[in-house]
């Protein structure tokens, strides 16, 4: 039985370093190639030696697909392609392709320049890696090779985030990447058609959460910021350089404009300009509002938001700072956090999910004393707020997507095991489809029941549909034809054509049968009696009495001869071709019962 | 039959061919045959290839065909149809047949048989579909004939088994449009064909082609529209279609379900997979709610829209639509709305700093959580959060409609509506504000909600702010803090956007009069009075101070204890404001002071009664006078007119009525005066000069009648008759004057004829009203009509003159409601001394902001006129989008007028005013009179009478100082 095998190298019952291997109908596809925020050792990248111990990865993988530019989905890409070695195609959407190298470069800088690590990928490697990337458009079907095709759907999570459908023949897998089912200030909602894949691999970050309406969340956020600023406090919002940051920027920008506030808003690092540039360019990937209004004013041209300089952190007075990275594990956000943590007037708003082990996770879980590098103890007096702005689908959203796509199987990744368990149970209960949640390195095998397409010649189709009743959707229809399996393709043709193609002569197969009847009369009288009998019984068929003394029922021939030994026994010879098997056997059975005696 | 026809056509055809050879006789042929068909025929015969023929047909299709020749053309076309091998040409012919049968006045039953016959041998599916389309056209023209319809339906049923979706599509459409609707008729002809049409269509609900499925549902809906009661059995079928793969099917299915839910709201349907049963309307509601989270936004819009009109749904289901259980890490979490409400009820609100309550509370039983609710759960929550603003608007509209019918739902949906005030798309915000206003009777705003509402006052869009002011006008606030908050925010708004002044004052007026008891404790603070110290007197012209006073005075109206809190200057300011802003400041009973207000205020009896009585009495007095000779009458009329005008000024409710009648009496007065001129006694050549008065009177009466007809809303046909009658009299007067002053008879002929025609058309238009007009001018005139028609102009004039003098004064019945259209230009104010400078030859944009009241169809009628000092006048048609409709009967025009002129030496004033354009064609009479008579009379009327267009100035002109500078070289 054909099967689809899925092995997560990362993100199996875990969040971070998403990397999922899928083998479908003999094709091997790697979905995402991310790094893990929580580790600084070998564990930060997926274990590619699982794929092959020696030899190039290119021989084992048909393609790599990157769903979006977050580092936990693409962070290991240069390592994978340049250091481990992969030369095959890498697919991503246009915005992802544009923004991905910026983030990789940033990541490299932090790791190599700040932490002084060696044996890390270089800028050149990032460039080389990006050369292998093939950009795809939304809803564009890309033929990777003759059989494997992929198609991107809008996922809404960040700019350029996409869900991918991987299809070989009739078998298909949809990988969602990260997605968001509720639209936000700058992106629309994820959407997929009823593609009915064999397997849907979905993220499940918020498997056990149903969120409040986004408007309430936005209002809460704005209120928090506004109040702190009015108190004269400073607000730190750790964000990933791209994505959430832009949404929050738009939100604050419009709010500032509406409320006529004067406190400065800063956005850290030079990334912003570059990133905003791309946001301005990829307007088609944003939401309805931005797409409609950009003719008057591009929403990403901020009026109130300025670039941040390190020195500003010590300025007196209120301010709002967006700083990277989002989980407070390194970089500028951590620096600013250290400076501001001591003052209770200040506030840090964590707008997204924090991986275990990061400072963000620690302060969110209520730790007030943090051990920093060099045995320093940092006391956190500032307010810590958590605002679920993370653009992942919540439990309802995930269910909604499953309802839209109607998959036959669901596989959950990118979430915590305990939460997945709950969602898994819900999915099985409500959709009656099987659901899997493999851990890293664990292989899930799904058996598929693919339908096999067969080409049929139009002539035959028309001829066969013309016979009998109207086509009815509910009933299967019986057809006669010859199935030719040749060169990996199937064709259904009429028997004549099949014979012609194969160069065979037509053979006729006839069944003959002798039936003994006790009848003392003359042969032709017997024949007449048989004729009358048959004529009486088989009203719907054409029964003929031929001049040479034989009877035909349709194409079945019946002849009668007297038995050579016993003249009282007549032998009826019944002969039919195999096409008329049904009628022929019926006829013999009828004749074997004998002729009715009543007729004289 | 067909064969016979074919033969006939064929004969025609052969004739033509034969005669084509002889040039001479071909002319003869064209005289005998309809030229069109022959020409076409010749063309078609000449065509050597299908492409050629197609070209000829295309050319032919561009030209109209006269009714008489349609049949001939059809025959020719059919003839070619039979011979033609090329499918595309046949297709074109088939479509032409359809077009031709649409020709007005042509009855297509004669070609129906042929069209049906052509169906039989047709192989091409496209042509078949087109032919069926043609049959549909024929069928819709012959709807009165049941047998034709039956026949066509039968034909359609036969082709339903076709393998092409196009043909099936058309068949279903045909059945939908023509299928028998009345039960009785269906039974009679049952023997022939018609089984149950619904069943036939229903069978195609699961056709393999989505387009056919859609067509089937649409056909069903069509049947419903035509009055057939759909069977309930369809419901379950339709429910299955909701899960269809194709959006157009789902969209149509949603409609069908809605229709069924309206037809059988109370029937009981089982819930699958359980033993329970619920009402059909509830079930349908649940299903449509489910479609609000459909994958296609078209379906979502459709579903959200329909939800609004399902008012029979039980409240339990209705309230579920706003329900969304939150959880976080499997623990129940309360929504922000619930938290806000709790904070409020615990009296702890306002700081907003306690966020700890955000934390999730109790654990949830994992088994009990239902992530995908069947039915209505959270439908509106989803709809309001949708990606597409179209869906959000539809959801807001639906909320509005449902909330209007259910107060408890209104209370519940408030939180969501308030949230929508922060939507990113302005249209949605505006829509939700309007919605809130509509349901404001049912609700009271909590403070936290008010807070969110008021935050929107800072919005930079004027529409939003004004809509919000409107909303605040009719909002109920629960606490005095709420009032204070609203006032503070409104004042903030005032400083930020000074142009909102009027609107804010008005808003505060209503706020004060609605919440007197809440304002009372705030008064000392608002007026900043102090128990011991005198505080400085505030600036009287400060708009903010005026705003506060407006609030307080309006509250004081129903709160007699309040004036005690006022300080001296407040009383003085009251007197001033009562005079200058009388529409905002109500009359008050102030202690130690004579009543400043109008004499009626002490008694609480309705104001209208005495004044209305007065109005009627004075009218009675006038109408009692039958003959119009003596001097006394003139005086009486003059007095009455004066009285009425004064009454109108005093009583705004009666202003329309009083003005209207005054105008009428004025016309009458003018007429009387004109008729009493001495000139009538003098011999013709002598009074050339003197006629000035009479002709001016005639002119003025004409103008006034147009004003009466078009400037008042609420005028009914009874009044229109009188007005037209008055106009007729004026025209008669004009005719007489002209007859007297001009020499020669020729010009009189035309005028007389025209006048008679007018009388004629008057008779036609108002035939039903004539019995009420005993003894009037027109009544007498009509009696004399036979004589008038035959007599000479001079005699006509004589007759007219005597009739005019003898005719009685018609009683003008008053309608219930009568409002005069008024306009008030708010901007430009006309106060500025700084001229608007611009370079001559270029344009300058002048912002015009005006309020219009009681103007019907302002988009079509209101114009802006600019008068330059050199007498040049410019008429500007504002764009339809420039008109906003803030409330019933009120409109607001915010537009820009472009000015330009050649250079002036010094600044000068131009005048801007609003005009009401009218066209006597659009007369109100036309709406009241049955169509047929009107169109008949229209045809009979000469063009000149049809389209008298003109304008009535209806606003005070505003002067704007401008200065076009010469361009620098």
Concise synopsis of the structure shown:
Chain A is α/β, with parallel strands linked by helices and 600 residues long.
CATH class category of the largest domain in chain B: Mainly Alpha
pLDDT averaged over residues of chain A = 85
Fraction in beta strands of chain B: 5-15%
Give me the count of strands of chain A. Answer: 30
The helix content of chain A is 25-40%
Q: What portion of residues of chain B is helical?
A: 55-70%
Q: How many β-strands of chain B, per DSSP?
A: 16
Strand content of chain A: 15-25%
- CATH architectural grouping of the largest domain in chain A: 4-Layer Sandwich
Class derived from helix and strand content of chain B: alpha+beta
What general outline of chain B do the C-alpha atoms trace?
globular
Dominant shape of chain A: elongated
**In CATH, what is the homologous superfamily of the largest domain in chain A?**
Ribonuclease Z/Hydroxyacylglutathione hydrolase-like
CATH topology of the largest domain in chain B: Leucine-rich Repeat Variant
Summed up, the helix count of chain A is 16
Largest interface: A-B, 50 and 46 residues
Task: Determine the oligomeric state from the structure.
Answer: heterodimer
Q: Strand order within the widest sheet of chain A? A: 6-5-4-3-2-1-22
Gap between N and C termini of chain B: 86 Å
Task: State the low-pLDDT regions of chain B, or none.
Answer: 5-34, 184-194, 346-359, 594-607, 923-947
- Annotated CATH homologous superfamily of the largest domain in chain B: Leucine-rich Repeat Variant
Describe the structure.
The complex is a heterodimer of chains A (600) and B (969). Chain A has 16 helices and 30 strands. Chain A has 600 residues and is α/β, with parallel strands linked by helices. In chain A, the strands form six sheets. Chain A has a seven-stranded mixed sheet. In chain A, strands 7-8-9-10-11-20-21 form a seven-stranded mixed sheet, covered by helices on one side. In chain A, helix 3 runs antiparallel to helix 4 (123-131). The longest helix of chain A has 21 residues, at 94-114. Chain B has 969 residues and is α+β, with helices and mostly antiparallel strands. Chain B folds into five domains: 39-181 and 195-259, Leucine-rich Repeat Variant (Alpha Horseshoe), CATH 1.25.10.10; 260-323 and 372-442, Leucine-rich Repeat Variant, CATH 1.25.10.10; 445-590; 610-806; 821-923 and 947-965, Immunoglobulins (Immunoglobulin-like, Sandwich), CATH 2.60.40. Chain B contains 44 helices and 16 strands. In chain B, strands 8, 10, 11, 14, 15 and 16 form a six-stranded mixed sheet that branches. Chain B has a four-stranded antiparallel sheet with strand order 7-9-13-12, with helices on one face. In chain B, strands 1-2 form a two-stranded antiparallel ribbon. Chain B is globular. The chains are: A alpha/beta (600), B alpha+beta (969). The interface between A and B is large, with 50 and 46 residues.
């Amino acid at each position: 039985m054909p099967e689809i095998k899925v092995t997560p190298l990362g993100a199996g019952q875990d969040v971070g370093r998403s990397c999922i291997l899928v083998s479908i109908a003999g094709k091997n596809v790697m979905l995402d190639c991310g790094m893990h925020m929580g580790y600084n050792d070998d564990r930060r990248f997926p274990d590619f030696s699982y794929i092959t111990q020696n030899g190039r990865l290119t021989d084992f993988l048909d393609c790599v697909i990157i769903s979006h530019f977050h580092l936990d989905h693409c962070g290991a890409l240069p390592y994978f392609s340049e250091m481990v070695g992969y030369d095959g195609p890498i697919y991503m959407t246009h915005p992802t392709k544009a923004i991905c190298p910026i983030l990789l470069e940033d990541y490299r800088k932090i790791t190599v320049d700040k932490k002084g690590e060696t044996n890390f990928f270089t800028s050149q490697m990032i460039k080389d890696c990006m050369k292998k990337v093939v950009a795809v458009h939304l809803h564009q079907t890309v033929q990777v090779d003759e059989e494997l095709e992929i198609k991107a759907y809008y996922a809404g999570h960040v700019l350029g985030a996409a869900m991918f459908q991987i299809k070989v023949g009739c078998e298909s897998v949809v990988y969602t990447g990260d997605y968001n089912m509720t639209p936000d200030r700058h992106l629309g909602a994820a959407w997929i058609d009823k593609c009915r894949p064999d397997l849907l691999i979905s993220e499940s970050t918020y498997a056990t959460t149903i969120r409040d309406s986004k408007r309430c969340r936005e209002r809460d956020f704005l209120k928090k910021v506004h109040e702190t600023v009015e108190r004269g406090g400073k607000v730190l919002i750790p964000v990933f350089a791209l994505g959430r940051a832009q949404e929050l920027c738009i939100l604050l920008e419009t709010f500032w404009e509406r409320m006529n506030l004067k406190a400065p808003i800063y956005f850290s690092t030079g990334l912003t300009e570059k990133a905003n540039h791309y946001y301005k360019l990829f307007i088609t990937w944003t939401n309805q509002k931005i797409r409609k209004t950009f003719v008057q004013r591009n929403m990403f041209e901020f009026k109130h938001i300025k670039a941040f300089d390190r020195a500003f952190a010590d300025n007196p007075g209120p301010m709002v700072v967006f700083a990277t990275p989002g989980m407070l594990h390194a970089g500028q956000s951590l620096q600013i956090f250290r400076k501001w943590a001591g003052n209770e007037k200040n506030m840090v708003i964590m707008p997204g999910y924090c991986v275990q082990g990061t400072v963000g996770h620690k302060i969110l879980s209520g730790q007030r004393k943090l051990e920093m590098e060099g045995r320093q103890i940092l006391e956190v007096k500032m307010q810590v707020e958590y605002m679920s702005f993370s653009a992942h689908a919540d439990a309802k959203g995930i269910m909604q997507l499953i309802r839209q796509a109607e998959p036959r199987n669901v596989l959950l990744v990118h979430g915590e095991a305990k939460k997945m368990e709950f969602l898994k149970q819900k999915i099985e209960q409500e959709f009656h489809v099987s659901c899997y949640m493999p851990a890293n390195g664990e292989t899930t095998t799904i058996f598929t029941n693919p339908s096999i397409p067969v080409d049929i010649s139009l002539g035959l189709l028309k001829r066969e549909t013309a016979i009998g009743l109207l086509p009815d959707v509910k009933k299967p229809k019986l057809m006669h034809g010859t199935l030719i399996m040749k060169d990996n393709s199937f064709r259904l043709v009429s028997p004549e054509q099949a014979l012609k193609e194969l160069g065979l002569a037509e053979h006729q197969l006839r069944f003959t049968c002798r039936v003994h009847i006790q009848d003392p009369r003359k042969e032709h009288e017997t024949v007449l009696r048989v004729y009358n009998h048959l004529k009486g019984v088989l009203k719907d068929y054409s029964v003929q009495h031929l001049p040479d003394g034989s009877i035909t029922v349709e194409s079945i021939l019946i002849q009668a001869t007297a038995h050579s030994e016993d003249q009282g026994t007549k032998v009826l010879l019944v002969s039919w071709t195999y096409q008329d098997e049904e009628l022929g056997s019926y006829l013999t059975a009828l004749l074997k019962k004998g002729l009715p005696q009543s007729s004289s | 039959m067909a064969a016979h026809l074919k033969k006939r056509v064929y004969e025609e055809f052969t004739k033509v061919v034969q005669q084509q050879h002889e040039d001479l006789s071909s002319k003869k042929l064209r005289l005998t045959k309809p030229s069109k068909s022959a020409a076409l025929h010749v063309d078609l015969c000449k065509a050597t290839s299908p492409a050629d023929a197609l070209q000829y047909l295309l050319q032919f299709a561009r030209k109209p065909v006269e009714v008489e020749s349609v049949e001939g053309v059809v025959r020719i076309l059919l003839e070619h149809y039979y011979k033609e091998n090329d499918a595309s040409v046949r297709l074109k012919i088939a479509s032409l047949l359809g077009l031709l049968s649409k020709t007005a006045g042509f009855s297509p039953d004669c070609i129906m048989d042929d069209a049906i016959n052509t169906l039989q041998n047709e192989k091409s599916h496209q042509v078949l579909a087109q032919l069926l389309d043609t049959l549909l056209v024929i069928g819709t023209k012959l709807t009165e004939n049941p047998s034709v319809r039956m026949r066509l339906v039968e034909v359609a049923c036969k082709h339903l088994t076709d393998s092409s979706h196009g043909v099936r599509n058309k068949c279903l459409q045909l059945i939908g449009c023509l299928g028998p609707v009345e039960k009785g008729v269906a039974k009679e002809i049952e023997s022939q064909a018609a089984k149950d049409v619904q069943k036939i269509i229903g069978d195609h609900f699961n056709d393999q082609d989505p387009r056919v499925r859609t067509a089937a549902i649409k056909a069903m809906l069509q049947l419903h529209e035509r009055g057939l009661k759909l069977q309930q059995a369809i419901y379950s079928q339709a429910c299955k279609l909701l899960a269809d793969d194709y959006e157009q099917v789902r969209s149509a299915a949603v409609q069908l379900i809605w229709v069924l839910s309206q037809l059988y709201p109370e029937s009981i349907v089982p819930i699958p997979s359980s033993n329970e049963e619920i009402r059909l309307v509830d079930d349908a509601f649940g299903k449509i709610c489910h479609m609000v989270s459909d994958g296609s936004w078209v379906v979502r819009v459709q579903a959200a829209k329909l939800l609004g009109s399902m008012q029979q749904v039980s409240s339990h289901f209705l309230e579920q639509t706003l329900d969304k259980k939150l959880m976080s890490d499997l623990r129940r979490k309360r929504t922000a709305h619930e938290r806000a409400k709790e904070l409020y009820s615990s009296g702890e609100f306002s700081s907003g700093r306690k966020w700890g309550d955000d934390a999730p509370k109790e654990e949830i039983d994992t088994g009990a959580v239902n992530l995908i609710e069947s039915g209505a759960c959270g439908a509106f929550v989803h709809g309001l959060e949708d990606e597409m603003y179209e869906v959000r608007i539809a959801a807001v509209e639906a909320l509005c409609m449902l909330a209007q019918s259910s107060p408890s739902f209104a209370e519940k949906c408030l939180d969501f509506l308030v949230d929508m005030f922060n939507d990113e798309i302005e249209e949605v915000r505006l829509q939700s504000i309007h919605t809130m206003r509509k349901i404001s009777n049912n609700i009271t705003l909590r403070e936290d909600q008010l807070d969110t509402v008021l935050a929107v006052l800072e919005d930079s869009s004027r529409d939003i702010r004004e809509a919000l002011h409107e909303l605040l006008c009719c909002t109920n606030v629960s606490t005095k803090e709420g009032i204070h908050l609203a006032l503070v925010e409104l004042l903030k708004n005032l400083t930020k956007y000074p142009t909102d002044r009027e609107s804010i004052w008005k808003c505060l007026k209503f706020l004060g009069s609605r919440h007197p008891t809440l304002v009372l404790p705030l008064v000392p603070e608002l007026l900043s009075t102090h128990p011991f110290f005198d505080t400085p007197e505030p600036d009287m012209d400060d708009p903010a101070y005026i705003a506060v006073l407006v609030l307080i005075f309006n509250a004081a109206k129903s709160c007699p204890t309040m004036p005690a809190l006022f300080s001296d200057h407040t009383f003085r300011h009251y007197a001033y404001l009562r005079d200058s802003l009388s529409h905002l400041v109500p009359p008050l009973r102030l202690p130690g002071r004579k009543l400043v207000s109008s004499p009626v205020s002490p008694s609480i009896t309705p104001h209208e009664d005495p004044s209305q009585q007065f109005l009627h009495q004075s009218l009675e007095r006038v109408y009692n006078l039958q003959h119009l000779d003596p001097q006394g009458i003139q005086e009486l009329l003059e007095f009455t007119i004066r009285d009425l005008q004064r009454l109108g000024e005093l009583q705004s409710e009666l202003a329309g009525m009083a003005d209207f009648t005054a105008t009428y009496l004025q016309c009458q007065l003018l007429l009387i005066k004109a008729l009493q001129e001495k000139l009538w006694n003098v011999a013709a050549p002598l009074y050339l000069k003197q006629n000035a008065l009479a002709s001016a009177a005639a002119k003025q009466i004409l103008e006034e009648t147009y004003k009466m007809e078009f400037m008042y809303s609420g005028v009914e046909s009874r009044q229109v008759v009188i007005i037209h009658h008055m106009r007729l009299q004026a025209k008669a007067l004009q005719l007489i004057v002209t007859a007297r002053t001009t020499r020669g008879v020729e010009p009189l002929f035309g005028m007389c004829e025209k006048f008679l025609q007018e009388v004629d058309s008057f008779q036609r238009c108002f035939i039903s009203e004539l019995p009420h007009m005993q003894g009037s001018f027109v009544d007498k005139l009509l009696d004399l009509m036979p004589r008038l028609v035959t007599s000479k102009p001079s005699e006509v004039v004589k007759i007219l003159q005597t009739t005019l003098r003898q005719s009685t004064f018609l009683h003008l019945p008053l309608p219930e409601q009568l409002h005069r259209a008024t306009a008030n230009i708010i901007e430009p104010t006309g106060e500025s001394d700084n001229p608007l400078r611009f370079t001559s030859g270029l344009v300058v944009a002048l912002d015009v902001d005006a309020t219009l009241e009681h103007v019907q169809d302002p988009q079509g009628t209101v114009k802006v006129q600019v008068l330059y000092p050199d007498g040049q006048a410019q008429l500007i048609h504002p764009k339809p989008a420039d008109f906003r409709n803030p409330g019933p009967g009120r409109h607001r025009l915010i537009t820009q007028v472009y000015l330009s002129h050649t250079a002036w030496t010094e600044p000068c004033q131009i005048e801007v005013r609003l005009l009401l354009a009218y066209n006597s064609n659009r007369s109100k009479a036309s709406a009241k009179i049955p169509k047929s008579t009107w169109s008949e009379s229209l045809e009979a009327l000469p063009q000149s009478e049809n389209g008298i267009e003109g304008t009535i100035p209806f606003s005070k002109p505003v002067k704007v100082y401008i200065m076009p500078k010469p361009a620098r070289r």
